[in-house]
Specification:
By secondary structure, the protein is an alpha+beta fold. It has helices at 17-24, 28-34, 48-62, 88-100, 121-137, 226-245, and strands at residues 2-9, 13-16, 38-41, 70-77, 114-116, 142-151, 164-173, 179-180, 197-198, 223-224.
């Protein structure tokens, strides 16, 4: 199984990092080398679900996917706002749009899980969709994985220039058209090290954190240590690569 198609959505609101450096007095050369040229921010009426639904609908339309064949719709995110539901919220918006276009809705028997994890949510969703296609879906069903996130940081924080928002949807089939994924040869690694990057619910009750932004939206700023998080990331990637090489 593997990937047969992709569709992307990015919010229209864009911040050029060169302008950001002029505003904040940061070194443009350093920022451009480490981060890039710009970042996107969601509009006041956008969130992880709306972006995911937009990317998913684009995927269905661009690749002429029969909604009745979709047996798995997995959402990978760290930005969801409902702890009781998975991608059913995304499905609801997509079904509504399909109906307005005169198209059939997604299969009534579609699985709708969510994979909540910073950075890795989309990867876990993709691996799960690949396994679904190999074992459950067969040639009759297809899977869709959508990774959608809003990474926001407080003004003046060390992570401000690394923020962004967007969504990518991937079509997964047993006989892929773009790239085959062999999960048996994939590598993984994990180890609990204490907080390097967290979004604990309790932070919303800390006075210094702030309960609302100027637009009335609850902020989703993380509690993090940049240097420690980078060190942990590099070590776990190294361990995962070694694990993968041992399977080849």
């Amino acid at each position: 199984a593997g990937i047969s198609g992709m569709a992307v959505y990015t919010p229209p609101c864009r911040v050029a990092l060169k302008d950001w450096c002029d505003w904040t007095g940061n070194d443009w050369k350093k920022v451009s080398n480490v981060v890039g040229e710009s970042f996107r921010i969601p509009g006041h009426n956008e969130n992880a679900y709306t972006m995911a639904a937009t990317a998913t609908l684009r995927l269905i339309l661009n690749y002429d996917v029969d909604p009745a064949r979709i047996g798995f719709l997995g959402l990978g995110t760290e930005s969801s706002t409902d702890n009781s539901a998975g991608s059913i919220i995304v499905r609801g918006m997509v079904d509504k749009a399909l109906k307005e276009l005169g198209l059939p809705r997604i299969s009534r028997h579609c699985e709708v899980p969510e994979f909540k994890h910073a950075c890795l949510g989309g990867v876990y969703a993709l691996k799960s969709a690949t396994r679904y296609s190999e074992v459950d879906g067969g040639n009759d069903k297809v899977a869709i994985v959508v990774a959608s996130d809003i990474a926001e940081y407080a003004l003046g924080s060390t992570g401000e220039q690394t923020q962004g928002a967007g969504s990518v949807a991937m079509l997964v089939e047993k006989v892929p058209q773009l790239v085959e994924l062999d999960t048996k040869c994939s590598g993984s690694a994990s180890d609990y090290r204490g907080p390097d990057f967290r979004k604990p619910f309790r932070r919303h009750f800390i006075k210094e954190y702030g309960s609302n932004t100027e637009h009335g939206k609850i902020p989703d700023f993380p509690v993090f240590s940049g240097p420690y998080s980078t060190m942990v990331y590099l070590e776990e990637v190294t361990m995962a690569v070694e694990n993968m090489l041992g399977k080849l």
